[in-house]
Amino acid sequence: MREIDVFIDTEEIADFFYQELIKRGFIPAEDEIRELADITFEYLLKKDIIAEEWDE
Fold first, then answer.
1. Does 29 reside within a domain?
2. Closest Cα partner for 40 from 22, 13, 19?
3. Number of structural domains the chain divides into
């Protein structure tokens, strides 16, 4: 199995969730959307789908 670099942007995730929820008839609050994006990021970390790296 090969390794690839993937960059996850929680702001992009938040925007995606916002747009999708609007399409489905929901009116999400901005803080709720940010929480969903953070939860998604944490889920990907927990499942070892991604690894968090810090720029120095």
1. yes
2. 13
3. 1
pLDDT above 80 for 56? no
Please tell me the predicted confidence (pLDDT) of residue 4: 81
Range 3-36 burial, b when 16+ CB lie within 10 A, else e: eeeeeeeeeebbeebbeeeeeeeeebeeeebbeb
Distance between CA atoms of residues 34 and 19, nearest Å: 13
Answer whether residue 53 is part of any domain. no
| Domain span at 16 | 10-46
44, 9 contact by CB (below 8 A) = no
Is it the case that residue 55 has pLDDT exceeding 90? no
Phi, psi of 19 (to 5 degrees): -60, -45
pTM over 0.85: no
